[in-house]
Amino acid sequence: MAVFTTVTLDDLAQWSAQFPLGRALAIKGISTGIENSNFFIAMESGEYVLTVFEKLSFEQLPFYLNLMRHLAQRDVLVPLPIANRDGSILNALHGKPASIVTKLQGECQLGPEPVHCREVGAMLAKMHLAARDFPQHQPNLRGLNWWKETAPAVLPYLPQEGQQLLQSELRYQEEFAAGTTYQTLPNGPIHADLFRNNVMFDGERLTGFFDFYFAGWDTWLFDVAVTVNDWCIDLDSGALDHARVRAMLDAYHAVRPFTNEEQSAWQAMLRAGALRFWLSRLYDFYKPREAEILTPHDPTHFERILRLRISEPAPALA
Ligand SMILES: Nc1ncnc2c1ncn2[C@@H]1O[C@H](COP(=O)(O)OP(=O)(O)OP(=O)(O)O)[C@@H](O)[C@H]1O
Ligand SMILES: N[C@@H](CCO)C(=O)O
């Protein structure tokens, strides 16, 4: 149960009086999710999600919440943070940062078909374009620098062939990032964690992207790679499903055409997307934070994906 901070209906009634949402009618903890305490709340004006942030601070959160507001105001389907009467979208609840956002309808699509991938691809391109004029700048905190810092901490736990793969892929990515192709790739704020469990669908209709707490500035193509590596694969083997890949890439390209340089970088980015999650999963597996209660995700899933992305030619982007 991912409710680390208890919020009663009385607590909510008092705290939510600062928002123009009417009276608080009900509150229910959300059991999935591992980072924050999330609640569905019913207010007189409708249903919302209340998040009490357990790790991110008052200083860190404005980047993510302002980005969500920026996107929502440009018709990208994301939860809209609700401002209180002073205009603040981040307010203390039980001493922790908390916010109310609009509730997305529907549920996650954990067995996506091409039709779902098409929706995700089109909305991802729309999101990249809409974020171009977002004024706050924060790098992707799980980018190359983090990979370089993290690899030495997990290397000792890997068998020799795993160590070799990790070291050689890191070298490859460092060289690639220093090269001229990489410098030409369009970039801006990206979601950076757009997995199946971070998108809501009502049937075949996409209702929103959520969980923006790994967002940061990086290449748009890296975001596409992370998304393809989760949405368009067979989860057992890690192999790309070509119908889903085509649906996602074609839909993205129709909104924001890929460049020739992006085509040259595509295989490297698919590899980068796999390396990023292999590393974070290794780190969470071998270096769990104190009092961590979660069951870590399987790191070998992304090792398998990385090996496949290295050995197979990348599909055409467009
Ligand atoms: N705006 C929203 N509208 C509808 N449901 C939401 C919304 N935000 C979160 N949820 C629901 O709450 C669940 C947990 O949210 P989320 O995935 O953001 O959890 P977390 O603990 O913050 O992060 P993590 O996914 O990293 O564990 C989601 O799976 C989803 O069902
Ligand atoms: N999407 C991540 C988890 C948290 O963001 C993973 O599957 O490893």
TrEMBL record:
<dbReference type="InterPro" id="IPR002575">
    <property type="entry name" value="Aminoglycoside_PTrfase"/>
</dbReference>
<keyword id="KW-0067">ATP-binding</keyword>
<dbReference type="GO" id="GO:0004413">
    <property type="term" value="F:homoserine kinase activity"/>
</dbReference>
<protein>
    <recommendedName>
        <fullName>Homoserine kinase</fullName>
        <ecNumber>2.7.1.39</ecNumber>
    </recommendedName>
</protein>
<dbReference type="InterPro" id="IPR011009">
    <property type="entry name" value="Kinase-like_dom_sf"/>
</dbReference>
<comment type="similarity">
    <text>Belongs to the pseudomonas-type ThrB family.</text>
</comment>
<dbReference type="InterPro" id="IPR005280">
    <property type="entry name" value="Homoserine_kinase_II"/>
</dbReference>
<dbReference type="Pfam" id="PF01636">
    <property type="entry name" value="APH"/>
</dbReference>
<keyword id="KW-0547">Nucleotide-binding</keyword>
<keyword id="KW-0418">Kinase</keyword>
<feature type="domain" description="Aminoglycoside phosphotransferase">
    <location>
        <begin position="27"/>
        <end position="258"/>
    </location>
</feature>
<keyword id="KW-0808">Transferase</keyword>
<keyword id="KW-0791">Threonine biosynthesis</keyword>
<keyword id="KW-0028">Amino-acid biosynthesis</keyword>
<comment type="pathway">
    <text>Amino-acid biosynthesis; L-threonine biosynthesis; L-threonine from L-aspartate: step 4/5.</text>
</comment>
<dbReference type="InterPro" id="IPR050249">
    <property type="entry name" value="Pseudomonas-type_ThrB"/>
</dbReference>
